[in-house]
Design a protein that fits this description.
- The chain has 8 helices and no strands.
- Helix 1 (5-22) packs across helix 3 (50-66) and helix 2 (29-41) runs antiparallel to helix 6.
- The chain is an all-alpha fold.
- It is globular and about 35 Å long.
- It has helices spanning 5-22, 29-41, 50-66, 70-75, 78-81, 85-97, 104-117, 119-125.
- It has a single domain, classed as TerB-like (Orthogonal Bundle).
- Helices cover 66% and strands 0% of the residues.
- The longest helix is centred in the first third of the chain and has 18 residues, at 5-22.
- The protein starts with a helix and ends in a 14-residue tail after the last helix.
- It holds the Pfam family TerB.
- InterPro entries: DjlA_N (IPR007791), TerB-like (IPR029024).
- Residues 11-114 form the Co-chaperone DjlA N-terminal domain.
- This is TerB family tellurite resistance protein.
- It comes from Alteromonas salexigens.
């Protein structure tokens, strides 16, 4: 089954969000509400329902966290998250701040996102016309 780049990004966002809100071992109602609203806003393009996908993502993420593979799990999402690095960071910041605090585990995963996995894309987004950020000017 062919998955569009947009759908792969949607799925990576859900997996990333679940990882981030489970990182501290507690899931608050606020975090769950944010995730549910976020998923409802996605342009879902899969024959697999959002809820079935979410349930599987929760299972996969819990398994990764139980064996200490949270960072490895996040790294595996890198390519799909690069589809829209700004949106990925927006979602990551929102889900980790939804309950009013960021634990050390969440902060470490955010640092991995901003400083390694999405760093180049986040920097280049602010400079759409190349390294200098300026377009040639004709006079």
């Amino acid at each position: 089954m062919y998955v569009t780049p947009q759908q792969a990004f949607n799925e990576a966002l859900i997996r990333m969000s679940v990882l981030l809100y489970q990182a501290d071992g507690m899931v608050t109602l606020t975090e769950q509400d944010y995730l549910d609203e976020f998923i409802d806003s996605l342009d879902w393009q899969s024959p697999i329902s959002e809820s079935a996908f979410l349930n599987n993502a929760i299972y996969e993420t819990r398994k990764a966290l139980d064996v200490g593979d949270g960072e490895k799990y996040l790294k595996a999402l890198q390519q799909d998250l690069l589809f829209d690095a700004d949106k990925a960071m927006e979602v990551a910041m929102a889900i980790t701040g939804a309950d009013g605090e960021r634990c050390d585990e969440e902060a470490e995963l955010l640092t991995l996102l901003t400083h390694k996995l999405l760093a180049k894309a986040l920097v280049s987004c602010g400079q759409p016309n190349g390294p200098g950020g300026t377009a040639p000017v004709s006079i």
